[in-house]
Amino acid sequence: MPLFPKCPACKIGEVNNIKVGWFIFKKEKLLCNYCKAEFIPQDSLYPRYLLTNSDSKYNDEILTKAEWDFIANNGISNLEYVKKYNKLPILILKNANIILQKGEKSHLHDSARLYELRVETKYKTKSSGRIDAHKGGLFTNPYQSIDVHSESLPEISTGLKPVASGQLIMTNKRLVFTGEYVSRTIDLKDIVGIELHAIGFEVVSIKLARNLVFQVPDAEKWAEYIKVGVRR
User: How far apart, in whole angstroms, are the C-alpha atoms of residue 10 and residue 31?
Assistant: First the structure.
């Protein structure tokens, strides 16, 4: 049975496991039998595939199997849907460590790594110039001159402290992280900022002493979903 009866890239062929190569170098690839687009499986709680070798506008994107099926039938990706209609698709959870409350609906769920954003302030003494004790000229050699003025200037540095690995779930009411020994719950109504980070996305909440950073497979999607959820 093909992975995709209709190829999401060309919407003509079908995508199957095809053996390529010779003898001991043979391996299986998920290829379209018409346009030769390839779908590469990705590690995730939900089946995801990277599209490559295609002229499709979705080339190099990683989407769930359900999204690819929808695109194959002239649909759009979930992220496009959220941006276009300002609505959040409902997700049926599987193997999730959460009990939904009354009236609560789930929208996103994936593996995640939690970090805390730490900000440190250090003070460094800075001299405005040096004067030679005898000639009164400006010099750079500290052994031939003395400080005429100095001040302590703050140097602010930020760093990420790894906290735990686990699962992250977004519902219409909250953002829930569950790890082996650590859990965090953030109500959407308390979130005042969402920013993409180098490794994921950062959450700013009025109830958090420190900002949290979540490393997830698709940070842009998470950030957009949360922004829409907060506005709603």
Answer: 12
